[in-house]
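debug: dumping io for the single-chain case to check the tokenizer round-trip. Nothing else runs in this session.
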Amino acid sequence: MMRVALLALMGLQLAASPGAGEETGSYVVTGDAIMQPLVGGKGDPARGGALVADRQRSHCTLCHSGPFPDAHLHGTLAPDLTGVGARLSEGQIRLRVVDMKRLVPNTIMPSYYRVADEQGRRVATAWRGKPILDGAAIEDIVAYLTTLKG
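debug: decoded output
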């Protein structure tokens, strides 16, 4: 029941706050990672930290806990992100943010960069054919998460 309510909440919030509207670029998956940045270089960890903590834009803390502000608002449906930079490489983190469904098809984590096949799905008009976050935002989040070593 909690999962259904959370998914409904995420769907409502996603429909209410579209991303930058850019089309996604191509990327190459090698094993369980995307080795190359989605855009021209590494992201900014400070911007990434702000994005991770922003419940209206990235939605990360709806499901994840970690070393972020407002711990009482963190979710418990997904792994704690404390130390994720020590457990996963930059490329592994990138793939998980871009398209976790590639690794775990039934995950409730949205694909933040891959535009999902919308056939048979209810997708708000503002989101059709668009990623949740653009490549620069993804790289900022990756840059931040790689700093979380312990």
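debug: round-trip ok. Helices lie at 2-16, 45-53, 60-63, 84-87, 90-99, 135-145.
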